[in-house]
Amino acid sequence: MNDPKNTAFVLTALNVLEKREAGMPEVGAGDVLIKLEAVGVCGSDVHYYQHGVVGDFKVTFPFILGHECAGTVVEVGAGVRGVHVGDRVAVEPGVPCGKCEMCRTGHYNLCPDVKFLATPPYDGCLMEYLAFPAEYVYKLPENMTAEMGALVEPTAIGMNAALTGGVKTGDTVVIFGAGCIGLVSLLAAKAAGAARAVVVDLLPLRLAKALELGADAVVDSSQADLDERLRQACEGRGADVVLDCAGVNPTIRAAVQIARPAAAIVIVGMGANEISGVPLGPISTKELRITSLFRYKNLYPRTIAAIASGKLDVSGIVSKRFAFDETPEAFASAANDAANTVKNMICY
Length: 348
Hints:
By secondary structure, this protein is an alpha/beta fold. Helix content is 28%, strand content 28%. Strands 3, 6, 7, 10, 11, 18 and 19 form a seven-stranded mixed β-sheet that branches. A six-stranded parallel β-sheet has the order 14-13-12-15-16-17, sandwiched between helices.
């Protein structure tokens, strides 16, 4: 490499991103150096950008955002096997400790000491070069673009949602929320065999996108009589699986109502820290199984294979594309123009 320079976009205050010089990352044993080519703007990134906090995680300025990324390997560290210079790769952004009880019992996504990109205190990937452990870097097939590689991260959450809910051939699935996670959950549910997928949202653009991506029916949650319109959309049968990608009082309450007896409800998104007004009677009398998920584990290879095969067609997810130097515009758009945004992608 001919003395490359690394620049990053740094969050220096709420709603303020500044381009700054960043030192070239050190490539340690077991690491690879990636020249990044695409970074997706996630909802958590936008929340940090606007509020500086997500749940218990609080930003200390300056801070670098971004965790959905892909690029090309330009250097490999000592001991790296299976990843080579020139490989185009997607990055699984969380590196667990590998030693705790959660890691040792196969739940590495729940590792309390995970180092996750753009989750304080760890900086993210909104830079030109990123050094990362090769163990969590996955080669992309020739037919996948860097943009598709950056979409592997949210799509893995959608895959996890369908798997956690146990979606099977012939099921009716209701999905609350038609942002990026709701839409990739829709794709995953249909790929798993759902016969009917109903998507609920209040933004017309997102409802239209859900239909474009294969939803069998959509329901506008801003209108009255949500329960009845949901029942009609499910053809009077109710839902075998509900994937709540919004996670607020109205959606969780409606999920309990539309779920069939013995159905599964998966809380995928967390739009509120607390819920109230959720009826317990139907949960008991219908023997509903309510569960949740946190990110994903062991799903990157399967997600990449599903995208490459065309079983999960993510090509319609991105709504707006921005150059690297337009990163501030990409975040401002996501934060202030949600009605016209599903997923913003920064393309280098």
